[in-house]
Each structure stands twice: as C-alpha cells, then as structure tokens.
Amino acid sequence: MGSMSVRDRNNVVVTGVDDGPTLLLAHGFGCDQNLWRLVAPELAREFRVVLFDHVGAGKSDLSAWTPERYSSLTGYAEDLVEICDELDLREVVLVGHSVSAMIAVLAVNQAPKRFAKLVLLTPSPRYIDDGDYRGGFSRADIDELLESLDSNYLGWSASMAPVIMGNPERPELGEELTDSFCRTDPVIARVFAQATFLSDNRADLPDVGVPTLVIQTAQDAIAPPGVGAFVHAQIPGSALVTLDAIGHCPQLSAPQATAAAIAAFARS
Amino acid sequence: MMSPTGDLTGGGGGSCGDEPRPEGTDTNPAFSALLEDSAEDLYENAPCGYLSTLMDGTIAKINTTLLDWLGYRRAELVGCRRITDLLTVGGRMYYETHLAPMLAMHGEVGGVALELRGANGSRLPVLATSVVKTGPDGTAQLIRTTVFDATDRRAYEQELLRARRDAEDAREAADRERDRVQKLATTLQRSLLPPQLPRVPGMRIAAYYHPASADEVGGDFYDLFPLRGDAWGFFLGDVSGKGATAAAVTSLTRYTLRAAAVYDPDPIAVLDNLNTVLHHRYRRDEPRFCTVVYGSLTPTDTGFGLTLATGGHTPAVLIRADGATSLIEAPGGMLVGAFPTATFVTVEVQLLPGDSLLFYTDGLTEARTGGRERFSEEQLRHHIAALGPVDASTLIADLTDLLTAFGDGVDDDTALLALSIPPTEGPRP
Question: Which domains does chain B have, with CATH numbers?
C-alpha cells in the first residue's frame, strides 16, 4: 500500500517567516484552519505559521478518515506528530484550540522532543461534571448533544440537509457546501463530537513536560473559566491568561489580544 | 429604526397607478388605518420572532411574538439573559463552535435549524437567520436574528429521516437475506457434487463446476465412483430447471444413478432405472427430466474400455494422442424421465495412452461469445483441436479460462468432466 502524503491528507499550509520560530496551529471541533484567519496574518510577521485541517474537516482528504482511527483523540494526536515528522518541524510551539488543546497535550506527551512549548486555547480536559470537578455539562447534556447530532436537528441540518438526503437532482446545493465556511460531514462530525465530548484527559495533564500557556476567555459556555483554572493547576509550571473576551473562539472575538498572548509566550 | 412608512410606499390597494407619489404619503387613509402601520406594531407582532443580542450574546431586544412563543416576560430576558440561555445544550455547543465563528467571519448566517427552550422547558424547532450590525467605524455592535417556527418542517424532516433509516434497514436486511440464500445455495450445491474425485489407477481425472448464479442452486451434476472389481462408473448431466426444485431432482438423480449402477452396472440398465424413478416420481407434478451420460470404465492392457450410454445429452469430445478430435455420440438416446419408457443405446470406445475425453453440459456450448453469437459444439471441437494432445487437468484449466473469458455470456450452469490416459513412457511405435 502506498501512503498518501501527510501534507495532502491534512491540507497543511505553511506561511510566515521561513527562519522564524514555528507555530503549529490546531483548530477545534466544528471548523477548520479558517478559524485562524484573523490571527494567522499577525503571527506570520514574526513566526513560521503552520496551519492544517484535521482529517474530516475543511480540505483534508476525506478518504483518509476511518471511524477506527478518528473515534478517539489519540488518532488526531498521531496525525499532529506525523505532520511534524513529515515537515521535520522542530522546537514547535503547538497551539491547540478547544478539543485540539487536549489533542495537543496528547501529541506533546507522545513526542516531547518535537515540541518546545504548548499553548492551550480555551481547553477542557473533561466536559462532563465528575464529583467535585465541574466540566460545565451533565452526562445528560452531552447525551442530548450527541443525540441531536445523531438526528441531525442542530444547525448543521440546514446546511447538511442536501448531503443527508443525497439529492442528486440539486447538485448546486453540494457545490454551495463545498465553498462554505467550516463545512462538516455529518457522520464525521458525530464521531468527532463523541470523541470530543466524552473524552477525559485530566490524567494526561500532569505529564506535560514543556512550558505551557493556558488561554481562556472571561465568558465561555463550552469551557468555563473554572475549567481553564483546573488545567492550569494540573500542568506543572503552566501560566494562565484570561482574555477580556467573549465566547469559545477568542481568535475570532478578540484576535489581536489572542495573537499578542500567543506571540508573547512563544517569544519568551 | 425602520422608516414608519417605508414598507407601504406605493402599496395602496386599488390605486397602483403610474403616478409617482411623494415619499411618505398614502392616498387611502382607510386602508392605512386598517394596516395599523406603526413600525412598533410591525416589529412586535410580526409573524416571526425578532431578537437583537449584544456581541456577548446578551439579549438587548426581543419582540412580542417570540416572547409569546417562548412563554417569557420581557423583563425576564432583556438585559439579563443571553441567547445561549434560550438554546438547548446541543444548540449552545453549535452556537459557540459554528454560529459565533461564522458571524465573526461573514457577518451573517442564514437558515440555521435550532431548537429554542421555552420558559416551561418546552422545545420550539426554529429556523434562524442572523446578521451583524456594524457601527460607522465598522466594529460589530449587535446581532439581529429572525426566528421562524419550524415545527412542521421539523416533523417533515423527521419523517424523511425515519423513512431513510427504514429504507437503510430494509436494504441491510435484504443484503443479509441474500447472503444467507447464497450460503445456503453454495452448501446445497456442494452437497450435490462429489467433494473430490477418487484416484483411478492409470487414469487422470479433472472436473469443474461453474455456477451461473450465486443465489440459485444449479441443476448440473457429475460423479465418478468405483464399481465391482476394478471397474468404474461415472456420469454427468443436466436437470431441467433451476433452484430448489431442480436441486431436489438432481439429488434424486444422483443417488438413483449410484444405486442403480451398484445393482446392475450395465449403462443402459442404469439409465432405464433412472427413467423409471424420475418418471414415476414426477408424473403427477410438473414433469421433470434430465439429460445424462453414463459410462462404465474397465481397465484393459493398454488403457480403458469405455461403454457409454446417453440420454439426450450433448456429445463428448474425444482427443486422441495424435491430437485428432471426434465427437462421441450415442444416437437415439432419449431424455431421461420424460416418458414412461425410453430407449437408450450404447457406444464403445477404447481409450489409449495419450487419449482424453471431455464431457460437458450445454452451459458451455450455449454461452454467448462477445455479441449475440453462441458458442457451439463445433466451435468447442475446433477450440479443443487447436490445443493438440492434452491431459485432463490441462484441458479443464483451459476451458475454465474460456468460461471466465465469456464472463456474463455464460447464462447457465456448466459442468465439465475430463478423463485422460497418461502417455506411455518412451517412444511410441
């Protein structure tokens, strides 16, 4: 079997300063590398910026997706390490957003030599409440989320309906989707959501052996501030920055502050 | 704010003339009064919900329609609750991971299916469209959202999805059933053919069975077995029809031939017995019959003596050691089982070292070659003649390749049985 290039598989895009320090930006659930659109140009002035799409997202090679590999975060972490290997990235500052924060933790623990620093943007190691730990969601909440994904009645049903219904008479619907921002295949989204929202990576945090920055926002419905504080407390020697920003995606709601926080830490 | 009259300019019923009208005037006061066209009323009691939220999601304004749908009072929401408080968990997740990013990148998002949570916990399926309102300096100020009740649409979608799932289930069940049928057909087929042919001293034997369909048991059969002393019996034939009924006839035919040959190995007696049994068994039902060749082999000093009886079956092809081919027929042999009494005749053949003999069913000679042409007994003979002297396994291997090359052209089952006498060592006289 010939193996496809990791670069193609993950739609790897390299921008920025060739001899600058390397920033590898990993997008989270529900979107693709477009999510870095507002911070990448700023960071590219000083760093070599490596962007990619997780398999199943954006312009990644969908044929590389298998439920076996991608039903746990480990598969995604292996991909991250493979990207570093293929491009021979060294001293990487790895930035993981949302679920990719935990994927980044797994990647750093898997191949510590590749990575110099770790930035966790709105991370959550466990979405479901557990004893004293407050992830922000009950098991019933997450079950409901997964069920709604199953029945496809969430927002994505609107944009995904033509795909779900397999409507060959209206190809223009498919084309529109191809161009749309953050497109998601419903089957892949469901498996990814399951991997994301049922994972528990709390035990992986103390193993992180590289300097780590946790960035959270003042108000985040998915990863509440208490969760960011937990991650900070569990990773030895980590720093915590709380941006005066709203929502789960500060790289969109507060791009300048987010880029500045990442750059300052990467530079230090 | 929208212009109080903007929506009605030029809209006076019954007076849609060409005359330009000054902005903001309405020529029909009665019509105007009927419409109660205040912007306030248009907003509050619109047939859809209106919602304005600050960039952090705080609800800044909401219309009466949406408040009524959700069962909230204005004071319970405006300035103190966020849009995510009105969403289900899944919706909240979707808002944070999809909608907020899309609004930030595109400034608008349309036709999004969501579920809103009412004050009493009820769910309201909606379609929402949002646009970001920016200030003069281009910074985002608030998000305006229209909300349409999508209860009916959701029910319809649910039905579509359910129908799709049912169709998928049915297809899977059909696939499973097909697998089961194929497995059954394969097992049954195997039981109707000898698991392996015996070794006959001084003779090479090869056979091949080509089922036309994986779903149905075919009606072709063959066997080769020891008789008394050092004699051997064999047969090859084709039962009319296909499927389970044909398989039952095949089974009866096989075991009748085996038993009859033990009782009286004379080929004509064997076919007579089979004819009696088949005719008796099926005379009241749909008539069932078969074509069959039955032969007995007796070793001689130089090879084998063969006595062959045919019941309506295709002629065998004899390939002599020098490559000369001929057809072996026993003319006058009738279909077996079709009539109360049938006549069969025998033919004697001496098989010498280097000779081969091929028996086959008409699946081979009636296969379509390329276009609509059918392969024929003559073409088969030419094909074999071109091979020159061959032994049994080479001959069967060649014909297997030929059948494979015919592909879909083979529309009937095909059984092949070849016998050959190994050439003697050293130069022949």
Answer: 27-149 (3.30.450.20), 193-420 (3.60.40.10)
